[in-house]
Write a structure and sequence with these properties.
Elements (H helix, E strand, L loop, with lengths): L6 E4 L6 H4 L2 H13 L2 E6 L15 E4 L7 H12 L5 E5 L3 H13 L4 E5 L18 H15 L2 H4 L2 E5 L2 H7 L8 E3 L21 E5 L9 H12 L6 E5 L4 H13 L7 E5 L4 H10 L2 E4 L8 H8 L3 E5 L2 H6 L6 E4 L4 H12 L2 H18 L2 H4 L1 H27 L1
Parallel strand pairs: 1-2, 1-4, 2-3, 4-5, 5-6, 6-7, 8-9, 8-11, 9-10, 11-12, 12-13
Helix pairs in contact: 3-4, 8-13, 11-14
Length: 402
């Protein structure tokens, strides 16, 4: 008899269309596409989700439009659907998450819970269970959650996913994280794969993201490129993404003072069509992410899948993305002079850049495609189901023998 497909559902109370093409939508989609799960995502009835059409196989279930916050409404969705599911997918260490765990495992004792952390931090304290600071209510919370939510049995039904290996090492062995897995973000892979050709790559340094947003430090990239451009006349910088007004002013002033760069810095603006966006990755040789912090850096993984060598700051997930600089370079935060130096070093050896491109794409395919990164989660769910079936079989044998 063929195995029944795992019935898997993702619940994120504030889900918007933009989240569907991130881990919130791509984890259930990937489990459906690559592992045959019956995947569902709980959506808000008053939001539009045009990206859903790209996620073939992912079913939508709309949260009832009842009075109350999205947290309450999504909690009620979990209560309503608990017995129809094998596993649910939640996020962070919110009280909402804990209450959903409590309700789901109470209503479905054989259910499984996957909790995904999307955090930039690496210290254990940043993942620890947060309680109220009120002395009485905080003490009650500690007792309640330890006794009911994170009981020993419940902890055996929960898998926690973290996005970088530094955090993985820090969180292991701490309560209530009995079962932890490395679960980076991945990139969306169209049905025909990420198409790019080595011979079609151009002398382009690319960045994709919210240009000028405080954490992204696009100003560092512009300054670094300007210094690099003094000795390199072949490369241009391409900026893709929506632009903050403050950065518009900065960039215009910068170009007024450096008119020789006007033809070498191209501002594309936001690109919403995925095929067009992937076309920019396919043409670039180097992808830069000079952020002050990132939880992961999905754009970096997308760029790698198209053969771009990475230059990132030293945030935790960047070590995994570059495999500790085997497939890219890391620079200190805010150091545009070091960025210029690294760009000069990379571009001064075109043969090495050409050699790295297919290796980088292969590394991304093996580590950040959803088929690859979801394998541990799927295997964990299957293992738990097998253990449950074995336990039921033993109980029946015991009953028959008696």
């Amino acid at each position: 008899m063929p195995k029944k497909a795992i019935r898997f559902a993702t619940i994120f109370p504030k889900v918007e269309d933009v989240h569907l093409m991130k881990e919130i939508g791509l984890i259930p989609w990937g489990l459906s596409r690559f592992y045959g799960c019956e995947s569902t995502i709980a959506l808000l009835p008053d939001c539009a989700y045009p990206s859903l059409k790209e996620l073939s196989g992912l079913q939508a279930s709309y949260i009832p439009a009842v009075a109350g916050s999205n947290y309450l409404r999504s909690f009620l969705w979990v209560v309503t659907h608990a017995r129809k599911l094998d596993a649910i997918h939640l996020f962070y260490q919110y009280r909402h998450t804990r209450m959903c765990i409590l309700a789901f495992l109470a209503l479905n004792p054989k259910g499984l819970v996957y909790v995904h952390f999307d955090r930039k931090e690496t210290e254990f304290n940043d993942y620890a269970v947060q309680y109220s600071s009120h002395p009485i209510y905080g003490a009650f919370e500690r007792w309640f959650f330890k006794t009911f939510v994170y009981s020993k049995r419940n902890r055996s039904r929960i898998l926690w996913g973290v996005q970088n290996t530094i955090a993985l090492d820090n969180i292991k062995g701490h309560y209530p994280f009995d079962q932890v897995a490395y679960m980076p973000d991945g990139y969306f892979q169209p049905a025909d794969g990420c198409a790019w050709k080595l011979e079609e790559k151009e002398n382009i340094i690319l960045t994709v993201g919210r240009l000028g947003f405080e954490q992204k430090r696009t100003d560092v990239l512009v300054k670094g490129f300007a210094q690099f451009a003094q000795t390199n006349q072949d490369y241009k910088l391409v900026l893709v993404g929506p632009m903050e007004q403050e950065f518009k002013v900065f960039l215009q002033d910068f170009l007024d003072k450096n008119p020789q760069l006007v033809s070498r810095i191209q501002v594309v603006g936001p690109v919403y069509d995925r095929e067009t966006l992937y076309g920019y990755y396919a043409k670039a040789k180097i992808f830069c992410l000079p952020s002050d912090y990132e939880s992961f850096g999905i754009a970096a993984a997308e760029a790698q899948a198209h053969g771009c060598v990475l230059v990132c700051t030293q945030y935790p997930a960047a070590y995994d993305l570059t495999n500790h600089e085997q497939y890219g370079r890391l620079i200190p935060f805010g150091d545009w002079q070091k960025l210029a130096q690294v760009l000069q070093e990379l571009t001064s050896n075109p043969a090495q850049l050409k050699k790295l491109a297919p290796e980088v794409a292969r590394y991304a395919q093996e580590h950040f495609s959803y088929k690859a990164l979801l394998k541990p989660l799927y295997q964990w769910m299957e293992q738990k189901r097998s253990e449950d079936d074995s336990c039921i079989y033993k109980q029946r044998r015991t009953a028959c023998d008696s």
